[in-house]
Write a structure and sequence with these properties.
The chain folds into 3 domains: 6-139, Decaprenyl diphosphate synthase-like (Undecaprenyl pyrophosphate synthetase); 175-303, Four Helix Bundle (Hemerythrin (Met), subunit A), CATH 1.20.120; 312-382, no CATH class. It is built from 17 helices and 6 strands. It has helices at residues 14-20, 25-46, 65-89, 104-117, 133-139, 152-162, 175-181, 197-203, 208-226, 229-235, 237-251, 257-271, 275-303, 319-330, 334-344, 351-365, 369-382; strands at 6-10, 50-57, 91-96, 123-131, 312-313, 347-348. The chain has a 4-stranded parallel β-sheet. It has a two-stranded parallel ribbon with strand order 5-6. α4 (104-117) links the parallel β3 and β4. The chain is globular.
Amino acid sequence: MKIPQHVAIILDGNGRWAKSKGMPRNYGHTVGAKNVETVCQAAHDMGIKYLTLYAFSTENWNRPDNEVNALMKLLESYLKNCIKTADKNNMRVRVIGEVSAFDQDIQESIARLEQYSQKYDEIYFQIALNYGSRDEIIKQGFSDVLVKPLEMDGIEGIFRLFLPEDKIKEKTSNIRQYISESRFKDDVYILENSIVVENALKMIGGNFDTFNRFIAAFKEDYEPDVDRLEEYIDDDVRRYRNIIHDIKSSSGNIGAYSIERKAANLESAINIGNMQYAKENTHEFVSMLKRMFKDIGLYLAKINPVEQQEKTVRDAVDRGQLKDMRTFLRDADVGAVKEILAEIDRYEYNDADIEFLNALKMTVDAMDYEGASEIIDQYLNSK
């Protein structure tokens, strides 16, 4: 087994874990701190040279005072006990982050631990305290940071800080006025059961063309996985969680807040091991997505009427295209693969070839590129 040189761990979910056990959140933090000793021992035994632990971020200060106070007491206790862990594993400890925000006692404990453990060099252990991506970016010389979901008001505010006043042209922020003046005003009602269009437009400055591209991309990206979510919850939980997480992150940007909330609940359930909730609610989530995709499809068809053109019939799928696709699959070049599939779809095929193409697309969508290559080989060898 190949052992990584550097492993980084984010301490997350301790409070949720404790809550799922009917215990107070602080109990979860205590158990989590105890498990760090086990992690250090395991890293030493496996020969991992560098171990980084993200323990307390700048955002953690926003937690309730009683929880922050408990975390500070736990941190001080851990820093003292960590000397024994350092001895046991020949481990050099270094704390990274803005430690000046902590009480003097904690700062002194950090200094003692770092000083004491500097004689060791079998494993290098970094503890990240009071860290935050925003703070780190600002320290590198940037002026500010915008975090998702991005909203036009925030973007505009940043630009106003640096643009000369004579270069700024005021524009109405009345989104309803944008809608009433848009050529899409008579069709947008189709989306009202799934998407809060007014809010979505507000985030992008009332640009309907951008909004239409966003919802079309959302449908294209996630519709292929919908029918398989109930399968993934049983057979591939990791893939299930990744898809749910992506949908949660993207749905808020298009104003699909009911989808966003449901996805967040499912993701939280998976993270704390509540598989029963996830299984019981996935079917409803799938139904919600299907209704939204149907609405988006109807809306896009209404605003972009396409004349139906008769497709040219082919007696087989082009062998050259399939061989090119096989090469791209081996390189995991998904964009090139989908371009070839789109080109193949311009033609009409017999039932057997349609069945082959459906199987191929499903395998590609599942990111099983080796399986897709095998399907192509079987098809080519059969012709």
